[in-house]
Specification:
- The chain starts with 5 loop residues before the first strand and ends with a helix.
- Helix 8 runs antiparallel to helix 9 (about 250-275).
- Strands 1, 2, 3, 4, 5, 6, 8, 10 and 11 form a 9-stranded mixed sheet that branches. It has a two-stranded antiparallel sheet with strand order 7-9.
- It has helices at about 15-30, 50-55, 70-80, 95-110, 140-150, 180-185, 195-205, 230-250, 250-275, and strands at about 5-10, 35-40, 60-65, 85-90, 95, 115-120, 130-135, 165, 170, 175, 210-220.
- It is of the alpha/beta class.
- It comes from Caldilinea aerophila.
Length: about 280
């Protein structure tokens, strides 16, 4: 039996209805094309796994007994994936089969690209912010923080119209070449939420692969549908950023970013208490 050309991994956490809607967009055509479709239920309490099995019996369902985070959840699917290319998708992504099929086709046409993302659009059709970016080195984080504090807007043009080579792309919808995965390994499960896609892309780039953001392809990302409350999300963000620094930049840079985060958050609280947005 021949292996599937593409494996799609949809990660779900307490998003049963969204997961079913996500699958409805592409699954019949994907299965007809011989693709492998995997849903990872990351410890949901809303009967997601049973609903998927009932409505899409040909879809493979992998269940975790607890929410193990974005990296570990996707790794459950990656260990089952057999495709020459793999597409990671959040359950709150809406994408047609035609849009998804363009991702492995781009990889075929560009043999040095290890990972790519289509343009992520909001529900209104606007380009989503933070769909790609630069490595979070101290200088970059400082510029980004100053831009926000001074109200100068984003450092990147989210509305770019041509493919660009970038440092990282969002794992919300990411096409990855199997050869790149085999070379650099799976996602780092020390990241529970945030920066696991940055880390994966950095490891691929260090191994000689390119990472591309391709706005000529587009999907809708509803966003934030399974994120924890803001306070918990902020803690995950800080913890993941510190671990990223420990892993890639060393103890001095880790101390710097910890101090900078404290100062930045203090300034934001002072601005908020003064009524300054």
């Amino acid at each position: 039996m021949s292996l599937p050309p593409v494996s799609i991994i949809v990660l779900s956490y307490n998003t049963r209805d969204l997961t079913l809607t996500c699958l409805e967009q592409f699954t019949p055509e994907a299965l007809s094309a011989g693709w492998q479709v995997i849903v990872v239920d990351n410890g949901s309490q809303d009967d997601t796994a049973s609903a998927v099995r009932r409505m899409f019996p040909q879809v493979e369902v992998v269940c975790s007994q607890e929410n193990r985070g974005f990296a570990a959840g996707n790794n459950l699917g990656l260990r089952r994936a057999e495709g020459k290319a793999v597409i990671l998708m959040n359950s709150d992504v809406l994408a047609s089969f035609a849009a998804l099929a363009a991702l492995p086709r781009f990889l075929d046409q560009h043999p040095r690209v290890g990972a790519l993302s289509p343009q992520l659009r909001t529900r209104s059709g606007a380009p989503q912010a933070f769909a790609y970016g630069c490595d979070p080195k101290p200088g970059y984080l400082l510029r980004r923080g100053l831009h926000r504090l001074l109200g100068r807007g984003a450092l990147h043009d989210w509305a770019v119209t041509s493919p660009i080579e970038v440092d990282w792309v969002s794992g919300a919808c990411m096409g990855v070449r199997r050869a790149a995965i085999e070379q650099v390994g799976l996602l780092d499960e020390h990241f529970f939420l945030y920066f696991e896609d940055n880390d994966w892309c950095l490891r691929m780039r260090k191994a000689g692969w390119k990472v591309m953001y391709v706005p000529t392809l587009a999907v809708v990302h509803l966003g934030g549908q399974s994120e924890p409350e803001r306070r918990i999300a902020s803690r995950h963000y800080r913890d993941s950023l510190r671990y990223f620094y420990q892993k890639h930049y060393g103890p001095l840079a880790t101390w710097f970013v910890s101090a900078a985060l404290w100062g930045y958050n203090t300034l934001l609280r002072l601005r908020a208490s003064a009524g300054i947005l």
